[in-house]
Amino acid sequence: MNNIKSVLPMKAYRLFIEMESGSSLIVDFSVKLNTMKYKELIDETLFKTASTDGNYVIWGDGRVKITVKELMEVTLLG
């Protein structure tokens, strides 16, 4: 199961993500802030609103969403 248990915004546009499986990862979003999909996250106030519904990381009440698969791509491919 690839559900997200919790999300904690960190400094320098990083997220600490804990998965239901017990694994965790730190995702560096600083490398994605110049892309169309994630450009809004350069606003630190918005970035700090990161939360999860278990399937997505969500910012700003759904303004920006990312799936587990996309999280892994950001982590592995930058």
Question: What's the structural blueprint in terms of helices and strands?
Answer:
Layout: E1 4-10, E2 14-19, E3 24-28, H1 44-47, E4 51-52, E5 56-59, E6 64-67, H2 68-77
| Share of helical residues | 10-25%
Poorly predicted runs of 5 or more residues: none
Placed side by side, the strands forming the largest sheet appear as 1-2-3
The main pleated sheet reads as: 3 strands, antiparallel
Name the CATH homologous superfamily. NE0471-like N-terminal domain
Count of folded domains = 1
Individual helix count: 2
| Span between termini | 23 Å
| CATH topology annotation | NE0471 N-terminal domain-like
* CATH architecture field: 2-Layer Sandwich
* Mean pLDDT level: 90
CATH uppermost class: Alpha Beta
Task: Tell me the structural class.
Answer: alpha+beta
The H-and-E topology, N to C, reads as: EEEHEEEH
Oligomer: single chain
Query: What Rg, in angstroms, do the CA atoms define?
Result: 11 Å
Strand content: 35-45%
Name some characteristics of this structure.
78 residues; alpha+beta; NE0471 N-terminal domain-like; three-stranded antiparallel sheet; 2 helices; 6 strands; globular
Structure description:
With 78 residues, the chain is α+β, with helices and mostly antiparallel strands. The protein has one domain (4-77): NE0471 N-terminal domain-like (2-Layer Sandwich), CATH 3.30.2020.10. Helices cover 18% and strands 36% of the residues. The chain is built from two helices and six strands. It has a three-stranded antiparallel β-sheet, with helices on one face. A hairpin with a 4-residue loop joins β5 (56-59) and β6 (64-67). The longest helix has 10 residues, at 68-77. The chain is globular, with a radius of gyration of 11 Å. It starts with a strand and ends with a helix. The model has no long low-confidence stretch (mean pLDDT 90).
